């Protein structure tokens, strides 16, 4: 065997190893080749001659995994020995994408592996593309969790991510005749080489049943929960390698299974079919990711999922803590539990249940332990996305947890009464139970009350948390809300996805720029240097040619790489306003038709994103984009000055191709509605200039890049509130804008849907009378800002601004974000 002894550490840890060495030295390449060949035979059980590209991918991944495992065990042992505090990141979503290139980059083994694979006669890029994209998340929140896992490993913070091992991740999107269709995703179909099934880490998860109160003479009464359903959670661990391979953490995902059929009454009564259906019911819990984004799922299965992963994770955390420390009371000094949105809020009552019912700790002590251990990140203030659950459903599924929530609420409302006095409105507004129209448990309030820190994800969002949704809670518990502006991992979103730019940056700022992103500042004096601008633009052009090839081969649309690539890639949602971008395309189309000889800037408008399957208006917007594309792209009168392209099945891997090829980044949400955004950071880091509203982290991007290097337009958050208060009718705005009138009338005439002229009536109607997202209200200013983009595109100022965007993005590294969490929330010292 080739890898019986640990690989030579000096190779992996070399500090100034280049990101992509031209080729590894001969013996390491030979070692890798021979290991890959043995994996094909011994792990896949195949003759090398019969191996297909997928077999090669599995063999390469297993070969790399062997090297990671040594480092992983070492990281764990070292943390254990030092008694380090650990972070537990609880998230229903981890949008990790592919792992091979990530792990290769971070292990500094990209060069040797590429050489080894190609020496074996295999196309490395094809092998890389054979890995399915792990899409265990919907969008921003799930991708943030993945970036954070990588940054925690990079900063050598002992951490573990906890989530669900969904058998089917986010649906595959097919665009058929312009309409989105959803198909199940099958990432596990051909096996997953990264994970380790932990057959010995299994917990019982219980639901339903009833409570018994046991009165005790000299002590408070006790409550016994007698559940009527038990299922099991089995752990699967995936190693997450930090930059330079110094530290490796685990992502632990739970898979649901029925208890041993021999333990099922139905089975023992001879009802084998009944037993099968019980098994299917248990396994349903980890079958699908809920594909909703910003709209509550509202289904019992979702609540079952939430409890399933929370309970398994907490049992695991407490077991581990007791094993290493022996004293359950010291939990807050050894564990920080971070709740990624409200989806894991049940951690609050579950930790209380385990402490009080299982470990017999008094209520007040248990509450102190709980609040000192847990903290909560909020990712959205959209009222429709704030999770609540019907009390009746809760009581049926988790009676003991509801009981605990009521008990927490008693103390909490007593504190509220003291604070707010007779003000019943404030008391009702902070209660864990919403009594307006059917009683519901407020998961955001529950997470807030059970946490010592609550954070928003951009400066503006955290401020709006204090002023709006959590205003009363903030007044009751002042100082708990803090801001942690999001970040992105530069390893994936620069080094790996844009290797050519990375080499140029290494040339310009020194190789250390890979470890110290602040060095990007050294680009500033080069931003005016014509020779440097040309090198920078040559990289961008090469990336655009690659994207153009993908578009041509996938969609049959030919786009000119010298045109401006105007990109909006994200979930499709009305508040993100893909519609504003699309109607601007229509307005521009009409303007070009009216003045074909004008000095127009050739543009390719590129859209990509998925709509929740049940979100009708978002799906109609996808159809609208495709239909206007059909008309515009095929109209010879505009001579290719404008094209509209919708790239189907947007996912992490698609983003890795689109982001480096973008010139203009569309971040145009209605002000006050996008909590942060992280795509805005990825695009700016790769040299795209932002056109955006004063929303979320755009504001901080503006502060960093400077106002001459970004295009800002539109109403501000407070103006949005004022304008909505005046009503949603946009008739006045439309009549004062001939351009907008022209656009809406064309939509209504069926110019873009001649086969069904009324198809887009709901869109025209919203633009005219229900302008909740201020698409009509912001249209003129957006159109103006887009013409300023056109002007700048033709001047050397474009390259300058683009370079300055890259130069000034260091602060948006998720390493910075994680350092702030470690200091202010987790209380973990960093060296
Ligand atoms: C209950 C249904 C549901 C599901 C998901 C409600 C809300 C969500 C998420 C909070 C949606 C989400 O991904 N939010 C995004 O989080 C990113 C990371 O912080 C931010 O950058 C985005 O602005 C925010 O929309």
TrEMBL record:
<dbReference type="GO" id="GO:0005737">
    <property type="term" value="C:cytoplasm"/>
</dbReference>
<dbReference type="InterPro" id="IPR011833">
    <property type="entry name" value="Glycg_phsphrylas"/>
</dbReference>
<dbReference type="InterPro" id="IPR035090">
    <property type="entry name" value="Pyridoxal_P_attach_site"/>
</dbReference>
<dbReference type="Pfam" id="PF00343">
    <property type="entry name" value="Phosphorylase"/>
</dbReference>
<keyword id="KW-0328">Glycosyltransferase</keyword>
<comment type="function">
    <text>Phosphorylase is an important allosteric enzyme in carbohydrate metabolism. Enzymes from different sources differ in their regulatory mechanisms and in their natural substrates. However, all known phosphorylases share catalytic and structural properties.</text>
</comment>
<dbReference type="GO" id="GO:0005980">
    <property type="term" value="P:glycogen catabolic process"/>
</dbReference>
<dbReference type="InterPro" id="IPR000811">
    <property type="entry name" value="Glyco_trans_35"/>
</dbReference>
<keyword id="KW-0963">Cytoplasm</keyword>
<dbReference type="GO" id="GO:0030170">
    <property type="term" value="F:pyridoxal phosphate binding"/>
</dbReference>
<feature type="modified residue" description="N6-(pyridoxal phosphate)lysine">
    <location>
        <position position="682"/>
    </location>
</feature>
<dbReference type="GO" id="GO:0008184">
    <property type="term" value="F:glycogen phosphorylase activity"/>
</dbReference>
<comment type="function">
    <text>Allosteric enzyme that catalyzes the rate-limiting step in glycogen catabolism, the phosphorolytic cleavage of glycogen to produce glucose-1-phosphate, and plays a central role in maintaining cellular and organismal glucose homeostasis.</text>
</comment>
<keyword id="KW-0021">Allosteric enzyme</keyword>
<keyword id="KW-0808">Transferase</keyword>
<protein>
    <recommendedName>
        <fullName>Alpha-1,4 glucan phosphorylase</fullName>
        <ecNumber>2.4.1.1</ecNumber>
    </recommendedName>
</protein>
<keyword id="KW-0663">Pyridoxal phosphate</keyword>
<keyword id="KW-0119">Carbohydrate metabolism</keyword>
<comment type="similarity">
    <text>Belongs to the glycogen phosphorylase family.</text>
</comment>
């Amino acid at each position: 065997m080739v890898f019986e002894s640990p690989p030579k550490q000096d190779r992996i840890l070399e500090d100034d190893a280049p990101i992509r060495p031209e080729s590894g030295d001969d013996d390491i390449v030979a070692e890798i080749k021979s290991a890959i060949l043995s994996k094909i035979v011994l792990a896949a059980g195949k003759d090398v001659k019969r191996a297909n590209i997928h077999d090669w991918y599995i063999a390469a991944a297993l070969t790399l995994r062997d090297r990671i495992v040594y480092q992983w065990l070492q990281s764990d042992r070292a943390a254990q020995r030092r008694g380090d505090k650990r972070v537990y990141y609880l998230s229903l979503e981890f949008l990790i994408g592919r792992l091979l290139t990530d792990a290769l980059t971070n292990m500094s083994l990209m060069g040797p592996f590429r050489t080894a694979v190609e020496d074996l006669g295999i196309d490395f890029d094809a092998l890389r593309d054979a890995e399915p994209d792990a899409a265990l998340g919907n969008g921003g929140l799930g991708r943030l969790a993945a970036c954070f896992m990588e940054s925690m490993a990079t900063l050598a913070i002992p951490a573990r991510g906890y989530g669900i091992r969904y058998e089917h991740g986010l649906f595959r999107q097919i665009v058929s005749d312009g309409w989105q269709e959803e198909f199940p995703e099958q990432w596990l179909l051909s096996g997953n080489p990264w994970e380790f099934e932990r057959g010995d880490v299994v917990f019982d998860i219980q639901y339903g049943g009833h409570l018994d109160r046991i009165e005790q003479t000299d002590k408070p009464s006790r409550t016994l929960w007698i559940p009527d359903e038990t299922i099991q959670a089995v752990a699967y661990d995936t190693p997450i390698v930090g930059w330079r391979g110094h530290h490796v953490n685990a992502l632990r995902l739970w898979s649901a299974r029925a208890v041993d059929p021999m333990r099922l009454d139905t089975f023992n009564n001879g009802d084998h079919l009944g037993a099968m259906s019980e098994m299917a019911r248990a396994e349903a819990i980890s079958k699908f990711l809920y594909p909703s984004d910003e709209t509550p799922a509202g289904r019992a299965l979702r609540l079952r999922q939430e409890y399933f992963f929370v309970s398994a994770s907490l049992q695991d955390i407490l077991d581990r803590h007791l094993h290493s420390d022996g004293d359950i009371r010291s939990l807050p000094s050894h564990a920080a539990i971070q709740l990624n949105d409200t989806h894991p809020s049940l951690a609050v009552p579950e930790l209380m249940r385990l402490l009080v019912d299982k470990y017999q700790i008094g209520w007040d002590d248990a509450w102190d332990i709980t609040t000192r251990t847990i903290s909560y990140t909020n990712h959205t203030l959209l009222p429709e996305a704030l999770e609540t659950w019907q009390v009746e459903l809760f009581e049926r599924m988790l009676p003991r947890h509801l009981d605990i929530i009521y008990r927490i609420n008693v103390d909490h409302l007593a504190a509220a009464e003291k604070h707010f006095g007779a003000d019943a409105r404030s008391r009702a507004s902070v209660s864990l139970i919403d009594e307006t129209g059917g009683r519901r448990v407020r998961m955001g309030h529950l997470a807030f009350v059970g946490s010592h820190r609550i954070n928003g994800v951009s400066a503006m969002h955290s401020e709006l948390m204090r002023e709006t949704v959590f205003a009363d809670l903030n007044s009751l518990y002042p100082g708990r809300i803090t801001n942690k502006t999001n970040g992105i991992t530069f390893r994936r979103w620069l080094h790996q996805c844009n290797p050519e730019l990375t080499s140029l940056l290494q040339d310009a700022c020194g190789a250390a720029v890979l470890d110290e992103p602040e060095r990007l500042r050294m680009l500033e004096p080069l931003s005016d240097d014509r020779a440097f601008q040309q090198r920078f633009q040559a990289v961008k052009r090469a990336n655009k040619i690659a994207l153009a090839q993908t578009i041509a081969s996938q969609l049959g649309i030919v786009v000119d790489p010298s045109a401006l690539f105007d990109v909006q890639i994200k979930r499709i949602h009305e508040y993100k306003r893909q519609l504003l971008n699309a109607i601007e395309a229509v307005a521009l189309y009409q303007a070009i038709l009216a003045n074909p000889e004008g000095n127009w800037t050739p543009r390719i408008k590129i859209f990509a994103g998925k709509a929740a399957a049940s979100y009708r208006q978002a799906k109609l917007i996808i159809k609208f984009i495709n239909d206007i594309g059909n008309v515009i792209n095929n109209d010879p009168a505009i001579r290719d000055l404008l094209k509209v392209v919708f790239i189907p099945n947007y996912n992490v891997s698609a983003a890795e191709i689109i982001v480096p090829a973008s010139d203009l980044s569309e971040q145009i949400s209605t002000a006050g509605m996008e909590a942060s955004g992280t795509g805005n950071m990825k695009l700016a880091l790769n040299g795209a200039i932002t056109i955006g509203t004063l929303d979320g982290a755009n504001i901080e991007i503006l502060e960093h890049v400077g106002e001459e290097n970004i295009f800002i337009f539109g109403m501000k958050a407070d103006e949005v509130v004022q304008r909505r208060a005046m009503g949603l009718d946009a008739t006045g705005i439309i009549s004062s804008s001939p351009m907008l009138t022209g656009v809406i009338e064309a939509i209504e005439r069926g110019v873009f849907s001649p086969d069904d002229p009324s198809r887009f009536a709901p869109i025209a109607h919203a633009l005219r009378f229900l302008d909740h997202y201020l698409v009509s209200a912001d249209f003129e200013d957006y159109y103006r800002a887009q013409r300023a983009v056109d002007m700048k595109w033709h001047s050397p100022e474009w390259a300058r601004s683009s370079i300055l965007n890259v130069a000034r993005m260091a602060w948006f590294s998720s390493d910075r974000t994680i350092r702030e969490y470690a200091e202010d929330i987790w209380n973990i010292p960093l060296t």
